[in-house]
Design a protein that fits this description.
- It is built from 5 helices and no strands.
- The chain is mainly α.
- Helix 1 packs across helix 3, helix 1 packs across helix 5 and helix 2 crosses helix 3.
- The longest helix is centred in the last third of the chain and has 18 residues.
- It is globular and about 35 Å long.
């Protein structure tokens, strides 16, 4: 297995976080303040699938009570949208 095959795709996490944040009516800036990061960091995780540090990952999934199952479903939805666009 080469290194690229071991990389985890964080787009599903980003979508799950965005959905959970919006359900609470919170802004990216508010979430950023809660976890000690910038709103740009939260935006990049949600929209670009940026990989968070382990500590930030833990804070976010704990804050929103997100399971691995939940963001794997979001990842599948993201891939379907991407395939339809192309």
């Amino acid at each position: 297995m080469n290194q690229d095959e071991r990389r985890f795709d964080f787009h599903g996490l980003g979508l799950a976080l965005k959905q959970a944040r919006e359900e609470k009516g919170w802004t990216q800036a508010y979430v950023a303040e809660l976890v000690g990061k910038t709103d740009r960091t939260i935006m990049n995780i949600e929209n670009k699938g940026q990989r968070p540090s382990f500590n930030l990952f833990f804070k976010l999934v704990t804050l929103f009570d997100i399971s691995v199952y939940q963001f794997s479903i979001q990842k599948s939805a993201w891939r379907e949208q991407l395939q339809k666009a192309h």
